[in-house]
Amino acid sequence: MIKQLPISVSGSRKYDVRSQFAALCYRIRKNKIQILLITSRGTRRWIVPKGWPMHGLTPAQTAAQEAWEEAGVRGQSDGRCLGIYSYSKETDENGHFPCLGMIFAVEVSSIADEYPEAGERERRWVSRKKAAKMVDEPELARILLDFDPRRPI
Fold first, then answer.
1. What 3-state DSSP class applies to 2?
2. CA gap 10, 12 in Å, rounded
3. Which part of the chain is the Nudix hydrolase domain (predicted)?
4. Which pTM value belongs to this model?
5. Which of 21, 40, 143, 149 supports an S-S bond with 63, CB 3.0-4.6 Å?
6. Each residue of 25-60: pLDDT tens digit?
């Protein structure tokens, strides 16, 4: 396992940080990889859970925390970044701005019916191929399509 250091965002504002940490939540059923996608709150597009850096947490820990808050899943990440994808982020304060998402695999160990954003999002387990077709970002689609936790790095 790779040792990550916690980051510090003290003194920063959310809109100063133009990177987010994303969770590629997965499980293996009948020897097939399933990816969990959720809808965004605003546009209802299919996305992966992601969020701003959290003070005192590593990027992988932040991704796992976002997986809980946005998708209601708990799991572990080995801390390795699977890749980076770009997208346009919309905020009430700043409108649209470019953003990079660093994505971390989170092997799901439990799923809850009640979680912080349960009433705000839909979630769906799909194949890698289907997940790649459902998301809008081409770089994210490639990461989803190529993902295989059984393959050695």
1. coil
2. 5
3. 18-148
4. 0.86
5. 21
6. 999 999 999 999 999 998 899 999 999 999 999 999
Q: What is the pLDDT of residues 81-117, one digit of tens each?
A: 999 999 887 766 666 778 899 999 999 999 999 999 9
Q: How far apart are CA 99 and CA 21, in angstroms?
A: 11
Rounded to 5 degrees, φ, ψ at 17 are: -95, 120
Residue (of 96, 139, 112) closest to 25 by Cα position: 112
Angstrom distance (rounded) from CA 119 to CA 70: 10
- Given the structure tokens 């998301």, which residue do they identify? 135
d(Cα 33, Cα 83) in Å, to the nearest integer?
Answer: 18
Q: How far apart are CA 147 and CA 114, in angstroms?
A: 28
